[in-house]
Fold this protein.
Amino acid sequence: MKNVRPIVIKIGETVVHPEALGRVLAEVGASETASSKFLGTHGTDGQTLIEFAGRICYESYEPGLNPNVTRIREDPADYFRNIVSRGDGSILEHSAVSFAICHVSRITTHELVRHRVGTAVSQESLRYVRPPEIRFWIPDELNPEQRKAMEKAVAAAEKAYRELEAQVPWEKMTMDQKKRLTSAIRRILPDGLATNLIWTANHRTLRWVIEMRTDPSAEVEIRMVFNQIAEICIRDYPYLYGDFVATDLPDGTKSYRPKLRSKV
Ligand SMILES: Cc1cc2nc3c(=O)[nH]c(=O)nc-3n(C[C@H](O)[C@H](O)[C@H](O)COP(=O)(O)OP(=O)(O)OC[C@H]3O[C@@H](n4cnc5c(N)ncnc54)[C@H](O)[C@@H]3O)c2cc1C
């Protein structure tokens, strides 16, 4: 058994191409000044795409482009505060972030996949993957004796697994036969077996799931995962997550709640 802890690594995100945004602005009739101002003051990450997409609704790239619009929110911080507090959540769906979530139990992945909307999941398949070692996170709240007892139980499961594995002539089998047997013998491995997945979610979903899964009533392991996701989002997308407030919880994790409520 190898002791591990859940780790989240951001591996991808939506980006925009400023040149292409410039072409769109020209097509919709925005002035050169408005175009260079927008492109000069915005980045290339998902926040820019969200604002750009949102502004097409009223053609609010500059006052007067739509004759009904005489004033616009110039500062992206004001723009985002307004759309999030109004609950214009649909434009947040334009941008997504991909995370590698490593060393999490099947308990956490089972909870994670309950969040269906705006997500994509690719999880290590234990029908195909025969774990060469049992990676396992032991919850910090266990005392030393309880930890020892848990380690013993995991070692016993691993021993039983290795004994079963040793009875199978893997080298003589087709991939399909290996898959069937790998799938059959995994059933004796513990629920806490650490696994890996890639999880992608759009920003509307992320705001919702961060709040849900860092709530004090959520399980500690998924809170550890969403603490890391919240920190990444607050660091990398300040307009979208600047209203999240962290509260320290007794077990060392934090709960994150938005000050501005968006409808989901
Ligand atoms: C602390 C905590 C404890 C939990 N305990 C349990 C438990 O004991 N047992 C259990 O089974 N589950 C439990 N859950 C899981 C929970 O019931 C939800 O399945 C999970 O949080 C996903 O929520 P969601 O439906 O909002 O997510 P998503 O599927 O991502 O949906 C997001 C939102 O989209 C809308 N939506 C999605 N699908 C539909 C639809 N078909 N029709 C209409 N609107 C839709 C809803 O507004 C929904 O809130 C728990 C969750 C948490 C956070």
